[in-house]
């Protein structure tokens, strides 16, 4: 017969219920409201714990009338019982319907009244039926991070966000005068993200607090002419003398990117949406070279696929301007023209210390790398670290990665480490036929002469 003491020892301990309320509330705050509210059924102690959560997250992806009606009802009921005045996070992600616009306005007002520090409004609109933000959102003294997706940002009065440090606006109509109101109403803004926004063509930012600017205008518009009718003016003018980090992805069709005063810039990422423009266009190629000239003082440069495709048209005949960059990231297809671009960029980077070549596209057809430029005109005296990722094509026996690695090993006397990865190659359909190819590539890398005692890591 089992003793009472033994039965007590075998009784499982409810460790979750033993936690203090503050820790349980923190755990519940990591869930959506719909999920955390279900915990009220666990016990009397848990009945109202979820209402104390400092994070209110509401999401609804279904677009049916029935689902939306239930979602609106659920949010309204929740806000009645959740009466905190110090919310940390308030997030809404839902389909938009005009008939519920008054409810949406109440929710936004609740977030402002509750002094929410992080507010995110993601509106899944249909047929360009945008949600117009109420005026209460533009007068929030406590919000520090604000995300607006699928909204119409059209304040009639001034914008007052004295505590805002990060602003993310996406898929929105954003007129030029609104941009100016935002910049003047956010004295401590640290990071500004503008993704797929329409209506403005100039960013003049003199704020000393603005550290990062991310602009993505690469979205393809079926009615492009409707959104951008005046092709004589630049698509985007950026002037920010105190900016540290800039990332720009633009649609160069009919327009160009103009960089003004960016004298303090340290990091720059540039990309073109080449799927909607002719990469051989004189205007596009000219703009690409102007940008390269403008960022020649930037230390850390990341040049993405579309921009490299345009530069490849120039690399055969033109020399790139000499730069002060110390770190270079390049993303491009594995083709012959890309080799010309890489070589040209290296020759124009005498102070380069770190290089990352990230190629993810696979070349189809015969190998054509042997007639490309196969050497550098100078030594890379400061280059210490190299990463080459996926710069191989199955039908070219490790090229052009092997050619590039051979050049770098020979021309970098201070090189300390080279890391080579060929993940896309080993996962390709040809991998089963070329089982020995990774070994052959590694053997070739180790056999190349080098001007330093660099360590070559192959994975």
From TrEMBL:
InterPro entries documented for this protein: F-box-like_dom_sf, F-box_AtFBL13-like, F-box_dom, FBD, FBL13/AtMIF1-like, LRR_At1g61320_AtMIF1, LRR_dom_sf
Domain of life from the UniProt record: Eukaryota
Matches recorded under SUPFAM superfamilies: F-box domain, RNI-like
Location of the FBD domain: 377-459
Short name of any one Pfam family annotated for the protein: LRR_At1g61320_AtMIF1
CDD domains: F-box_AtFBL13-like (cd22160)
Record protein name field: FBD domain-containing protein
Lineage of the organism: Eukaryota, Viridiplantae, Streptophyta, Embryophyta, Tracheophyta
């Amino acid at each position: 017969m089992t003793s009472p003491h033994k039965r007590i020892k075998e009784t499982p301990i409810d460790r979750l219920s033993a936690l203090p309320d503050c820790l349980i509330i923190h755990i519940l705050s990591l869930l959506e409201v719909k999920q955390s509210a279900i915990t009220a059924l666990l016990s009397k102690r848990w009945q109202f714990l979820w209402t104390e959560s400092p994070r209110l997250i509401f999401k609804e992806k279904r677009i049916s009338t029935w689902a939306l009606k239930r979602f609106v009802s659920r949010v309204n009921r929740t806000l009645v019982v959740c009466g905190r005045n110090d919310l940390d996070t308030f997030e809404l992600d839902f389909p938009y319907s005009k008939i519920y616009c008054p409810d949406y306005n109440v929710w936004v007002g609740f977030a402002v009244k509750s002094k929410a520090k992080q507010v995110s409004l993601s509106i899944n609109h249909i047929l360009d039926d945008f949600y117009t933000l109420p005026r209460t959102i533009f007068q929030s003294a406590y919000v520090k991070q604000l995300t607006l997706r699928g909204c119409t940002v059209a304040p009639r009065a001034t914008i007052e966000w004295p505590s805002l440090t990060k602003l993310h606006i996406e898929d929105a109509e954003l007129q030029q005068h609104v941009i100016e109101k935002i910049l003047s109403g956010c004295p401590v803004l640290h990071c500004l993200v503008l993704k797929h926004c329409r209506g403005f063509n100039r960013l003049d930012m003199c704020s000393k607090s603005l550290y990062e600017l991310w602009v993505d205008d690469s979205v393809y518009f079926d009615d492009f002419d409707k959104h951008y009718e005046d092709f004589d003016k630049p698509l985007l003018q950026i002037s920010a003398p105190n900016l540290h980090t800039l990332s720009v992805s633009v649609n160069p069709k009919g327009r160009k990117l103009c960089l003004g005063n960016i004298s303090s810039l340290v990091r720059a990422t540039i990309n073109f949406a080449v799927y909607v423009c002719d990469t051989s266009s004189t205007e596009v190629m000219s703009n690409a070279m102007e940008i390269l000239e403008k960022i020649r003082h930037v230390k850390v440069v990341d040049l993405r696929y579309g921009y490299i495709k345009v530069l490849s048209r120039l690399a055969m005949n033109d020399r790139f301007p000499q730069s002060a960059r110390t770190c270079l990231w390049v993303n491009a297809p594995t083709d012959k023209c890309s080799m010309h671009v890489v070589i040209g960029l290296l020759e124009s980077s005498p102070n380069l210390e770190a290089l990352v070549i990230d190629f993810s596209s696979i070349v189809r057809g015969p190998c054509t790398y042997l007639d490309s430029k196969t050497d550098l005109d100078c030594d890379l005296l400061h280059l210490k670290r190299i990463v080459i990722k996926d710069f191989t094509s199955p039908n070219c026996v490790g090229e052009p990665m092997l050619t590039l690695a051979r050049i770098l090993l020979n021309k970098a006397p201070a090189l300390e480490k080279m890391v080579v990865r060929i993940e896309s190659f080993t996962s390709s359909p040809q991998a089963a036929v070329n089982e020995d190819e990774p070994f052959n590539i590694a053997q070739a890398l180790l056999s190349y002469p080098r001007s330093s005692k660099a360590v070559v890591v192959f994975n």
